[in-house]
AraC-like DNA-binding protein
Amino acid sequence: MKEYGHELAAFCYYAPSAFEKLGGLWPIRSGHNIAKAGYAVGPRMIECYSLHVVLDGNVEFQAGEARATLRRGDLFCLFPDRLHNYRAVEFAADSPLRLHWLAFDGPQAEELLARVGITAEEPYLRGKANGELTELLTRQFGWMTEGNRPVELQMSLYRLFALLAPSDAPDSSGSVEPGWLERSAAYMKSHYMEPITVADAARQAGVHRSHFYLAFQRRYGMSPKRYLIQLRMEKAEELLRIGKLTVTEIALSLGYADLYAFSRAFGQFHGIAPSAYRQGRRGGPADG
């Protein structure tokens, strides 16, 4: 670290590559410091997002109407083109303010921040900076300094947000959090052409199957079984209209064990056999 007016600090100014900017998130700069008495930054604004973790000491932070005194284990975020200022408070020579920061940008940046509870209106979190997170920041600083670890850096950025993400398991009152429901629906949307079952989706959600059924029904207005069948039948209609695959090939492509199982499911859903549906749509002969 080098000595500056009111701090000892180390900085890394990173130049993200074109490859890194193909992703949803990329690093811009990083640094860490030990503040001296009188340390203060701003009021000023920056062009990107920047997470600042309080490693020790106390800092008073303000951005717009948001104001907070933060301590070890807390963190705050600077938002682009938004005035902010922060300063060391309750300074103690044996326990000075120490910060580690990571500036980043990308089309997913604001959404990822929102997912962990950081918004422009409330741009800080308390007690979320654990040892694993600070170690990750230290590794990121080293990789950015080396300048030749783009894949590791990209992976580590998402890991950072995973560490900050709150648990979204149902609480003891039995209330339904949307996170696991959305994940289970996304799981079915992503894999409905594979031979997955509703039990697989319940395991993905991490809740008991009966609770999964009830919560899913309330949220989506249909059972998870119906939801999964609907995804497959909508795709089946599309493939039957296109006409490039035989009905048997469509059945196997949609995760059914054989033509009989698919035809039965299609008939129950649409009230017509898949071969008859295709024949009616295009006026041609049925196939198998």
